[in-house]
Design a protein that fits this description.
This is VOC family protein. This protein is α/β, with parallel strands linked by helices. The protein is built from 2 helices and 8 strands; from the N terminus they run E-H-E-E-E-E-H-E-E-E. The protein is globular and about 40 Å long. The protein starts with a strand and ends with a strand.
């Protein structure tokens, strides 16, 4: 069985879409203004974003983007930092990892084993 898609409710679809495209290589194939967007990864996974006014995920909720190596994790961390995101340096925990608050109201983990 293969997971087919994930839908996130976000406060700003356009900002969340741009973030996911810029830092994680997702491609938007359809959108309706700031109300809805359909993004795909290189493996055909469908990631949809829907506009919501009061987005509140549980404190530990996050999505993750696995990277091939520590260098890729460091590069994404540095790009985010340079672009003004509040990110801490990666740490060796359950993998080499860091978290970032994404535009739209959700948390992203970037990690490698």
């Amino acid at each position: 069985m293969k997971l087919n898609h994930l839908n996130l409710t976000v406060t700003d679809v356009s900002a969340a879409r741009g973030f996911l495209e810029k830092y994680f290589g997702l491609t938007c194939r359809a959108s309706r203004g700031n109300g809805f967007a359909v993004l795909f990864d290189d493996d055909g996974f469908v990631f949809t974003l829907m506009k919501g006014n009061d987005v509140q995920y549980p404190k530990t909720f996050h999505i993750g983007f696995a990277q091939e190596n520590k260098e890729s994790v460091d590069q994404i961390n540095q790009r985010l930092k340079e672009d003004g995101f509040d990110v801490k340096p990666p740490q060796q925990l359950h993998g080499y990892t860091f978290y970032v608050e994404a535009p739209g109201g959700f948390t992203v983990e970037v990690l490698s084993q």
